[in-house]
Design goal:
This protein is α+β, with helices and mostly antiparallel strands. Helix 7 packs antiparallel against helix 8 (301-319) and helix 20 crosses helix 21.
């Protein structure tokens, strides 16, 4: 076996399959594109779903990749096991209806054992097969020459994720020797596929040959596929003779840097510290790549995952004696390790560090709140005479504040308490169940449609140069069958040998229009156009008259609608570049929609865009419109386009020939859509709204041309209405009039407040005279006639300064709503009375709830009729103390 670095192992895998006719596919971003079923890209095959289910036929049916992936369903195991990670790379080779078992197995063996490649000793390799898969076993025996005692039949060697492609699989194991095993030589689990550390699974080859149908039955796939996966981290540990994945060149530099930042800790000296080193190394990789691919910390979805990983790493940093922000310092280390495959990490390191540093600093504040909550929980548990912290609030500490269970347990032990681990585990399981339910369809694929994938009729799109043409009707799909004719009133999908209709792609909506016969009569309406699996433009039509296959028809695009769409598409390109100019190069497109009447553009950004920034973006786009810049399309090869500096959006896969759209010397992007000839055709650009749509993703909606004029005219009409209501002669006088009215309102509010304060002071005289003695305490409890909570707080301040009683409860009702306030003097608080406890007791009686500090609390409610009962309840509460 050769001595190889992780970079060499990755590249050698890709190079090998390139010699076998595979296209090397770039690693897709971790944030899935056009796949709402996935939170993250979680495997190599996740990026191939459209090929496996037949919705798209690839240009090359053989593909290979090293795909970065994230899985977070059991984060808490990271650091405690030898090979558990949140971020990992999956090496894979894929066949879409091309080669099958023989090639997949023999090529795997060649790569692993050939002296020209990995050169692993054949005697150290074992495989498992599905018992009913006699073909795979035969190939391993006869074609590869593997001894029968190196083949193990296992019932669970069947890859099935529900509806869609499925089939048997064959796993390859490497024998690391009994010295690596954690079981005895004669243990029944000491075999390839058993629960042991000796035989390490390094590769899984899935023979995708069945459709798992919705009714639970299986049928042969029309086109059989190969899907393989080799975990890079695992196989690197084999080549580098590492006990775990963490003692490899993928992790050790991060661990070493963490040790430098720690308080004299070193990896390998202490098992507990080693867990923290592993957690930090793993999480540093995951958050670096996730943020680099456009995700940002937040309280939901993938943003919550990033936040949790950062907080977990910070907590483990504290265990190593690292008290300040440190995780961001590991980003360049991660970038250097991965530079050969992912140079963008070092390129974007400054931005990634900024995001992580901000989150680390924010967590320091949250941590203080969490410690206070834990201290309060410990105090309450002791006050109640209990010795066990309940699991539910402990889980909240873990889930909300990032406190690992072990840390809470340590705090509890210091206080002489234990933690209800079973209750904590139940809460953890409930959360996992909820997450699993939310991901129920995350791995599923559609069932292959052989009818569509088998349609290979050539079809040419001519819409770049003309919006009407004659075309031969080549294929008609009606009710999932190929037919030769259509009758009036039938809806179907049709393919012509040529078409001017644009198929929806890249955010641009499809063209609509009409189909006419030789006599000029309209025989169908085109309602939608999508790409068929083999790339043809497939039109959804409503037939208005009989139509027949192989007949010639006139295809006419709705020109007015098409022109509006292309104006908005060009505006999208200008907006994209203007956002980069104003917000920074880290900003990139996260989605778009180009309609006839508006455009929608999603982009990544740390926070909201300010009004000043929006105005600047809008001004830049309009300047480019009025600069009369020519919009040109250059058709060239992929490498030349990249050298030109064209921006590639998302993780789009481009062919050998690409289209680059240039707006003067300002904007240049890969794009297959339709555009104007000159920016002046847009006329005007106006941003209508800017909002957040997810963690770190903002959305701009904008209009151009006629719609921009109509939007501004609508705003002008509103201003005219406002001017009329304010009785000013000209619109330009409106701001001054508004300022004068605001000053007048402020003056009236001050007068009103003064009168209310005077009235409240008079009210206090009669209220404060009514002091009740209840047990050893004194109480003032009364309903007062004031305007709201502000006056109640003022009365409470007067009461406190004069020391009129131990406890105060006041209520007022305004417009059917109740305000309650409770206050306790400091000496009474020391004696154990808490205003927060009192308000929680009485608030339900007025149909509300509330809380606050021990010396003052407040509540609101919707039942004024319950005020008397609430005041009486306050007396009862105090009597019990």
């Amino acid at each position: 076996m050769k001595q190889l670095t992780s970079a060499q192992i990755r590249q050698m895998y890709l190079d090998f399959f390139k010699t076998k006719g595979h296209d090397i596919m770039p690693s897709a971003p971790l944030v899935p594109k056009d796949d709402p079923t996935l939170l993250w890209i979680n495997s190599g095959v996740a990026t191939m779903k459209k090929y496996f289910d037949g919705s798209v036929v690839p240009k090359n049916h053989r593909m290979t990749s090293s795909q970065k992936s994230i899985r977070t369903n059991d984060i808490e195991n990271v650091g405690h096991t030898a090979r558990h990670h949140t971020l990992f790379e999956m090496l894979g080779n894929f066949s879409i209806g091309d080669y099958f078992k023989k090639e997949a197995i023999t090529w795997a063996w060649e790569l692993l054992t050939s002296p020209d490649w990995y050169a692993i000793e054949p005697e150290k390799l074992y495989v498992t097969v599905y018992p009913k898969d006699t073909d795979a076993k035969r190939i391993w025996l006869e074609e590869v020459g593997l001894p029968e005692d190196h083949i193990v039949e296992m019932e669970d060697n069947f890859w099935d994720i529900g509806e869609g492609p499925s089939g048997p699989d064959s796993e390859i194991f490497f024998d690391r020797g009994q010295e690596f095993s954690d079981v005895a030589e004669d243990d029944p689990e000491n075999y390839p596929g058993g629960e042991n550390e000796r035989y390490l699974e390094i590769w899984n080859i899935v023979f995708s040959q069945f459709n798992h149908k919705p009714d639970g039955t299986y049928e042969d796939l029309p086109h059989k596929n190969i899907d393989t996966g080799m975990g890079l981290e695992r196989v690197v540990s084999v080549f580098q003779h590492a006990k775990t994945n963490f003692e490899t060149d993928l992790f050790l530099p991060i661990i070493d840097k963490t040790a430098e930042l720690s308080a004299g800790k070193h990896y390998g000296d202490d098992a507990t510290a080693d867990v923290s080193f592993k957690v930090i190394a793993d999480h540093a990789r995951a958050v670096t790549f996730a943020i680099g691919d456009g995700a940002l910390p937040s309280n939901e979805g993938r943003g919550y995952v990033i936040r949790r990983l950062i907080r977990r790493a910070v907590m483990h940093g504290q265990k190593l004696g690292i008290n300040g922000a440190f995780l961001y310092q590991l980003v360049p280390v991660v970038g250097k390790i991965m530079e050969s495959a992912y140079p963008e990490v070092l390129r974007d390191a400054e931005y990634i560090q900024k995001v992580i540093r901000m989150e680390e600093d924010r967590f320091q504040e949250t941590l203080k709140d969490g410690v206070a909550m834990l201290d309060d929980l410990i105090a309450k548990t002791k006050e109640a005479g209990q010795s066990v912290l309940p699991g539910k609030p402990v889980f909240k500490l873990y889930d909300t504040y990032g406190f690992p269970f072990e840390l809470t347990e340590e705090y509890a032990n210091d206080a002489g308490l234990t933690v209800a681990k079973d209750e904590f585990d139940a809460e953890m399981q409930a959360q996992k169940d909820r997450a699993r339910a939310a991901r129920s369809s995350a791995k599923s694929m559609g069932v292959q449609n052989a009818l569509l994938t088998d349609i290979t009729t050539p079809s040419e799109y001519v819409g770049y140069s003309k919006l009407a043409c004659d075309g031969i009707l080549e294929d008609i799909i009606f009710e999932d069958e190929l037919v030769d004719s259509l009758a009036a009133g039938q809806k179907a999908q049709v393919i012509f040998d040529k078409t001017p209709f644009y198929a929806e792609m890249g955010g641009q909506v499809a063209d609509t229009g009409f189909i006419k016969n030789a006599e000029g009569k309209t025989v169908a309406q085109v309602e939608d156009v999508q790409h068929a699996p083999n790339g043809q433009n497939m039109h959804t039509i409503m037939a208005l008259a009989d139509m027949t296959k192989k007949s010639s028809y006139r295809l006419e695009v709705n020109v007015e609608r098409h022109d509006k769409v292309k104006k908005n598409h060009t505006a999208t390109h200008l907006l994209d570049q203007a956002l980069r100019d104003v917000l920074g190069s880290h900003t990139h497109q996260a989605g778009s929609l180009v309609e006839p009447t508006y455009l929608r553009f999603d982009f990544t950004n740390l926070g909201a865009v300010t009004e000043e920034q929006l105005a600047k973006v809008e001004a830049i786009v309009n300047e480019k419109i009025w600069a009369n810049m020519a919009v040109e399309t250059v058709v060239t090869d992929l490498e030349s386009a990249k050298k030109m500096g064209a921006i590639a959006l998302f993780d789009d896969k481009y062919g050998d020939e690409v289209r680059v759209v240039k707006a003067g010397d300002y904007s240049m992007e890969f794009c297959g859509g339709n555009h104007v000839n000159n920016t002046n055709e847009l006329g005007l650009f106006k941003i209508v709204s800017e909002s957040g749509v997810g963690a770190g993703v903002r959305r701009i909606e904008a209009v151009t041309s006629k719609e921009a004029y109509e939007f501004l005219e609508g705003r002008n009409h509103l201003l005219q209405e406002a001017a009329a209501q304010m009785k000013v002669a000209q619109i330009k006088e409106v701001p001054n009039k508004v300022q004068a009215l605001q000053a007048q309102i402020k003056e009236l509010e001050a007068t009103k407040q003064a009168l209310e304060d005077k009235f409240a002071s008079q009210e206090a005289k009669s209220v404060f005279e009514n002091v009740q003695t209840i047990g050893t305490y004194s109480l003032i409890a009364s309903q007062v006639n004031v305007s709201g909570m502000s006056q109640l707080r003022q009365l409470a301040d007067q009461w406190k300064s004069q020391g009129l009683s131990d406890v105060l409860v006041l209520a007022t009702a305004v417009d059917g709503k109740v305000n309650l306030i409770a206050a306790v003097q400091d000496e009474a608080v020391k004696a154990g009375l808490k205003a927060g406890d009192l308000i929680k007791t009485i608030a339900p009686l007025v149909g509300g709830g509330g809380g606050g500090r021990p010396n003052m609390a407040q509540a609101g409610g919707k039942k004024p009729e319950g005020i008397d009962q609430a005041l009486a309840k306050a007396s009862e509460w105090l009597a019990e103390k």
